[in-house]
Automatic annotation (TrEMBL):
<feature type="domain" description="Microbial-type PARG catalytic">
    <location>
        <begin position="78"/>
        <end position="173"/>
    </location>
</feature>
<protein>
    <recommendedName>
        <fullName>Microbial-type PARG catalytic domain-containing protein</fullName>
    </recommendedName>
</protein>
<feature type="compositionally biased region" description="Low complexity">
    <location>
        <begin position="63"/>
        <end position="80"/>
    </location>
</feature>
<dbReference type="Pfam" id="PF10021">
    <property type="entry name" value="PARG_cat_microb"/>
</dbReference>
<dbReference type="InterPro" id="IPR012664">
    <property type="entry name" value="CHP02452"/>
</dbReference>
<dbReference type="InterPro" id="IPR043472">
    <property type="entry name" value="Macro_dom-like"/>
</dbReference>
<dbReference type="InterPro" id="IPR019261">
    <property type="entry name" value="PARG_cat_microbial"/>
</dbReference>
<feature type="region of interest" description="Disordered">
    <location>
        <begin position="63"/>
        <end position="86"/>
    </location>
</feature>
Length: 278
C-alpha cells in the first residue's frame, strides 16, 4: 500500500512499468488473495461461459432462452435475493466501473442487493492487453480485482453469442491503483462480454439520423442487440438488482454509440421495459 504521505505514482507509470505491475498482480497478488478469501476462490470455481442460442436461430427469432438453466450457487448471495424491478430504472453517470459498484454498495445497508458490473471484454484473450500494460476498462478491472483468474483460456476465442459470468469478484485496489485497506475490500459479480470488433459502418445522408454512423450490415446491429439482451437476461436470471453497464464497443472497437442502445436490448427482452432518470 502506498504511504499516505507521498503521492502514488502508479497511475502514471510508463507502459513497461504497468506491464510489470500487471504481471506481479496476476502471478503473485491475486493467488495470495484467493488463498485467504474463500468467497473469491468460490467465484472463480463457479464462473460460467453462457451461450445465448445458436446464432442462426437468434437472427431468425430473437426469442430463444438462454442456455444456462442450472447455474451453481453464488456463495455471497443470500437465499432470498431481491427480484429485479419490473420496470428497470436507468441512470446515466460518468464514473469508473468499480467506483460505481462501490458507490451502490455504500449507498444502502440492504444485505439482499446483488451488484453486477459489465466487463467490456476482449474476445481474443483473457484480460485483453493487461499483461502488455494497456489501460482500457477490462485491463483496469483485471488490475484491481480477482477477475483475471476467472477468465479461463479455454473460453477464448470468445464466441459471439456468449458471455462469461463471474460471481464473487474481490476488489482490492482503487481507481488510482492504490491498494485498499482490507476493511475496504468489496465484492461484485462481473459479466464479461465482447462487442463486435471494427464493424463496417456507413454515414446516414438524409432523414432524422442524418450525419450519424450506422452499421452497414444489419446483422451486425442484430448481433449487438442480442449481446445487450443476453447481458440483461443473464443478470435477471442471476438475481442481480443493480447492473453497472458501459459504452460496449464504442471505443477502440468503433461501434456507433447511437446503435448500441441499452434501450434496444430492454425493448427486445420479454417482460422488460425501462425508465430513464435524468
Amino acid at each position: 500500500m502506498a504511504s499516505s504521505s507521498k503521492p502514488d505514482i502508479r497511475p502514471y507509470l510508463a507502459k513497461g512499468a504497468r506491464a510489470k505491475l500487471a504481471k506481479e498482480t496476476i502471478n503473485t497478488t491475486i493467488p495470495a488473495l484467493l488463498k485467504s478469501h474463500p468467497f473469491a476462490l468460490a467465484g472463480i470455481k463457479n464462473t460460467e461461459l453462457i451461450r445465448y442460442s445458436p446464432i442462426s436461430q437468434a437472427f431468425a427469432a430473437q426469442s430463444s432462452p438462454t442456455a444456462s438453466s442450472s447455474a451453481p450457487s453464488d456463495p455471497t448471495t443470500t437465499s432470498n435475493p431481491l427480484p429485479p424491478p419490473q420496470v428497470p430504472l436507468i441512470r446515466i453517470l460518468k464514473s469508473d466501473t468499480l467506483d460505481a459498484v462501490d458507490s451502490i454498495l455504500q449507498s444502502t445497508n440492504n444485505p439482499k442487493i446483488k451488484v453486477c458490473a459489465l466487463n467490456m471484454a476482449s474476445s481474443l484473450r483473457p484480460g485483453g492487453g493487461v499483461l502488455s500494460g494497456a489501460v482500457a476498462q477490462e485491463e483496469s478491472l483485471c488490475m484491481r480485482s480477482t477477475l483475471y483468474a476467472s477468465l479461463s483460456p479455454s473460453y477464448y476465442r470468445l464466441p459471439e453469442d456468449s458471455l462469461i459470468y463471474t460471481p464473487s469478484v474481490l476488489v482490492f485496489r482503487s481507481a488510482s491503483n492504490t491498494d485498499l485497506a482490507k476493511s475496504s475490500y468489496y465484492y461484485t459479480d462481473i459479466i464479461s462480454c465482447a462487442a463486435l470488433r471494427n464493424p463496417d459502418l456507413v454515414k446516414v445522408e438524409t432523414g432524422e439520423r442524418e450525419g450519424q454512423w450506422v452499421y452497414e450490415d444489419g446483422r451486425d446491429r442484430e448481433m449487438m442487440v442480442l449481446k445487450v439482451r443476453h447481458i440483461l437476461r443473464v443478470a435477471r436470471e442471476k438475481g442481480v438488482t443493480h447492473l453497472v453497464l458501459g459504452a460496449l464497443g464504442c471505443g477502440a472497437y468503433h461501434n456507433p454509440p447511437e446503435e448500441v442502445e441499452i434501450d434496444q436490448g430492454v425493448k427486445n427482452e420479454s417482460g422488460l421495459q425501462a425508465e430513464r432518470e435524468s
